[in-house]
Amino acid sequence: MAEYETHEYEVLVIGAGGAGLRAAIEAAAAGVSVGLICKSLLGKAHTVMAEGGIAAALSNVDDRDNWKVHFTDTMRGGQYVNNWRMAELHAKEAPDRVRELEAWGALFDRTDDGRILQRNFGGHRYPRLAHVGDRTGLEMIRTLQDHGIHKGMAVHMECTVVTLLKDGPRVAGAFAYERERGRFKVFRAKAVILATGGVGRAFKITSNSWEGTGDGHSLAYHAGAELMDMEFVQFHPTGMVWPPSVRGLLVTEAVRGEGGVLKNSTGRRFMFDDIPDLYRAQTADNEDEGFRYTQGDTNARRPPELLTRDHVARCIMREVKAGRGSPHGGVFLDISWIKARLPNAEEHIRKKLPSMYHQFKQLADIDITKEPMEIGPTTHYIMGGVRVDGESQMSTVPGLFAAGECAAGINGANRLGGNSLSDLLVFGKRAGEYSAKFAREQKPPAIDARQVDDAAKRAVEPFERSAGNEGPFQVQFALQELMQDLVGIVRSEAEMGRALAGPEAVTRRCCRAGVAGYRAFNTGWHAALDLRHLLTVSEAITRSALERKESRGGHFREDYPDKDPAAGTFNIVVRKNRDGGMDVVRTPIPPMPAALKAIIDEYK
Ligand SMILES: Cc1cc2nc3c(=O)[nH]c(=O)nc-3n(C[C@H](O)[C@H](O)[C@H](O)COP(=O)(O)OP(=O)(O)OC[C@H]3O[C@@H](n4cnc5c(N)ncnc54)[C@H](O)[C@@H]3O)c2cc1C
Question: How far is the CA of 197 from the centre of ligand 1 (A)?
Fold first, then answer.
């Protein structure tokens, strides 16, 4: 084996977003040595962009809330294909994780009597999102980071893992490159936690940052783990549509939680026109009741703008397709109208939604306290990910754990807003705890030199191809366009069949894409390495979406527009076969215990 800088830890955490940091804190607290790797600088992970809040049944604002209602909302939102054990643990443990974050220094917005303030969000029956204005992710990352660095973990920033290393069936570490100088590094570890976030960059219009290239999903898959629910991609209804340079940038659901309404070009509040039966009893049937709900009237029902994201996104698409959209291909989201109802409305909007105010003012020259915003759906989140054990977060590869957005299970077919940040805390902690336990019980793994040399050889391959060929960025754009057009919000067998041929064609292009120059800070080379991950997740999404012949949550098939009760009994799992191809299998969902069923019957 060539000589590479080598580091050894008992637990190696890949990713420093909310899930990775929370996992690293827990593992370090358990007394094992912890290494933390991240692609960008510490503090820059995607979690920092989270806006609306953390869902937890603290019942500070409405004392009817409790974990059972949160569990029921999460299962209904996920259309009952969630891992019910994860949904249960999440609802039970989220309040403690939020209080713990507060004890570690997070400064939440407050109720008048000094408790953590909670706001309304789509699909949550009661005000449930603990928040810090619309900058909750920033406060969460700041707090976890401050707390974490005092726990004694070693941080490797701007370091990107390209391959997981194995010792027989178990994970043994990771092979990575340094972004700045391009040097390779070997990490040996008894347990590895993947906390690498989402896959939004597989699509053209997305709210995700440049890091969201599905690395953890792909690393796990190629190391022999299973991916589950990959067909369930969340298209958030409200992303910016104008100007083009910021298309896809998120407009937080908190705008609707604070009273923002959706209108088409005729001025109609079209969300009242299509309320699904599942939610009819809980949804306001007039504008006045909807507004009262957003202002905390506990006797009012929520406005239809706060229905689940999958439904709102499809309603918007329908208006646009029917020619009732806004000038730049979206619809209008208006919070300024609350002036008619609230004194000091402009100041109130600036206080509650400071980031949104600045985002629109600076990027689109729109003052949201005075005029409506133009918005449209944007690829936001993936419910699918590494298939894990609900208690421990360990994948089917011994010693390989996953937490946060790169793990599957808790959200089923659709995630409720706010349930990601709580997921990061609850399952980040669990992954840290169980990985430390696993590591303590294992001998150090052996890493065979050939594996490392192969990983290094593969990583430099793009330099060996002609730089005169198509570049990696061009190939990436082609893939994003293909996924957006053929495997986007509305899907069909014919289009996805074309898409499937597409990634294969893109794979061929990818195999030819060459890069020039040296390994030091070479963004073309980085893009070429990201492409492998993007191709893997794109294929997994497409194959899983073809297999699910119904419409459910984030997955809408125009050739199978209805939900099929029989399809609610299984998850779709993909795994790599012996020939290197992708197998797709239907995996039965284990029966839910009677006690949990009774809770759903009581609260639905
Ligand atoms: C604009 C926006 C607003 C949101 N608002 C909310 C909200 O209010 N509430 C809510 O619940 N959810 C929200 N979400 C969703 C939520 O923020 C994300 O799902 C969540 O932050 C993901 O956290 P994570 O820890 O799983 O991963 P991330 O925060 O994405 O972190 C991933 C980490 O992995 C590292 N990484 C990735 N690949 C590699 C690699 N190959 N090698 C080394 N390191 C790697 C990255 O550098 C990074 O450190 C929002 C999302 C967006 C886009």
Answer: 5
